[in-house]
Amino acid sequence: MLGRPVSYRTRSSRPESLGKNSLHMIANICLTIFVIGALVVTIIAATYEPDDPLFQSPTKITTFLTSISNSTFQSNNTVIRTGEDLMAANQTALATFGSGTDAAETKETNSYETSSSECEVDPKEPLDCKDPEVFQLMMQKAIERFKDIHFNRFGKPTPGPEGNTCDMAWRFRPKQGKATGFNKDYRRFVINRDNCTLSVVSIGEYHSGVNARKKKKKNKNKIPGYEPASGLQDQGSFSLPAAGEMVNDSLPVVESEREFIRRKYLIYVGGADRCKSMKHYLWSFLCALGEAQYLKRTLVMDMTLCLSSVYTSSNLDEEGKDFRFYFDFEHLKQAASVLDQDQFWQLWDKWQRKDKLSLYVAEDFRVSPKKLIEVKHSLIMRKFGFVEPDNYWYRVCEGETGSVVQRPWNLIRKSRRLMDLVAAIGSKLNWDYDSVHIVRGEKARNRHLWPNLAQDTSPDALLSTLQNKIKDGRDVYIATNEPETSFFEPLKHKYTTHFLNDYKELWDKSSEWYSDTAKLNNGAPVEFDDYMRASVDAELFLRGKKQIETFNDLTNDCKDGVNTCNTAAI
């Protein structure tokens, strides 16, 4: 039987295959070692139980967090901030941009400990109000103190007159109520510094932190999102209202002759709108302003108005009332192109002949704005005659014109000086009150048109009606045209009542409102008239947590007299 030749070798034992086999063997050994090592590490990690101080007693936790470590070049003995501290700081920061509710409900201490290195200062040195911890403490304390308001934004603290005082401003609005606008406040904080601990001792009254009130700055930059009328520049710069900012309703001025002649203007002259009710005045004024916007022209407006006798203590019509007493001219001049007529006529007389400025007169209110938009003259003058009601300005916006010219109601706001009074009174009430609007006066005396009003608004009837609407002991603000507030004396047995006259110090001779309005009136004092009173009363009523109206809530009489009620609303 023949065997295999002696020289025969398998393929794996050939010399050329030995190198590859060795590499495979080494790779398999390395992989085996890696897998075994990974398995060992996994088992150790899963079964190892260190002595974690965070799960030990409070004493051990304190020791862990305050222990001294020499891992750096210098000994570090600062208190370590934990995740709770960071979360609390974030919640407080969010409160400055949102409602502030979550931050107000967060349970934090009212003092903060600083590091020993920060405490190594002379106790007599003034407090650093710009310190982030001081700022955070002041924000937290304000949120805890004023629980019935939403904070919109906090301003940076500024030093007060004493070394331990800081002033801070903020914007806010009441949590409840129908009003949605923001108010401003700035208060003085007294802060105690005891070794490494800061604490707020007290918070001052409304507008007590005068150092945090922003002052006017000269700034020629344009407001983002708004292109001001070319050629018009404020005597004082304008910026968006911020917490504590002063009112800047100075009259716009024309920069140069070139800018004046480049502009196109619209003016309303004559008519029988003066000395009518404020509602009539606004209806006509906004018609003129709407047409000016439609024609892309600057409205030349009379900055004085005639106050109807229904609002004056003299029972006579009173001329010469400044527009800025009642309305926010700062907002108006920002959003629309307007110019005071006294300044306009001075410049017109100065440059009209030289620059050949042309005038177009429209004497009939039926002249359509669609026709006037084609007019190229420098000035369009609408003249109104003497026959009522065809000489009312608002007639321009009637008929087909109403679909073209829109009244810009968003440009009219109540005077910020009046709104400051609203904020001051609301703050004195801590924004925690209910409100009742009680109409009496002429309507209560006219039993032909309002047969039940006098009886339904009597003290006994009010007590009976309100007992199911407002809880006993509540603060109740009563907005009323009843001149004798003693008429409502019986209500004090169940409620803490408040009236506008209770806060007359806010507009007396020593008040900021008094001095500001006098400056607008060439130094002459300004009466706090009935229209101003009605404006402040209405705003305070809207900010009550519960609002009780006269008509529908207190009486079944119709607001405008017998048989004038809206059937759908009953």
TrEMBL record:
Alphabetized, the UniProt keywords read:
Membrane, Transmembrane, Transmembrane helix
Looking up InterPro entries in the UniProt record yields: DUF7074, DUF7075
All copies of the DUF7075 domain together span 259-550
Q: Which residues form the DUF7074 domain?
A: 125-208
What are the transmembrane regions? 21-48
Residues annotated as region Disordered? 213-235
- Answer whether the UniProt record assigns the keyword Membrane to this protein: yes
The family database entries (PANTHER family) matched by this protein are listed as:
EXPRESSED PROTEIN, OS07G0633600 PROTEIN
- Its protein name is O-fucosyltransferase family protein
- Organism for this UniProt entry: Gossypium arboreum (Tree cotton)
Organism classification, top ranks?
Eukaryota, Viridiplantae, Streptophyta, Embryophyta, Tracheophyta
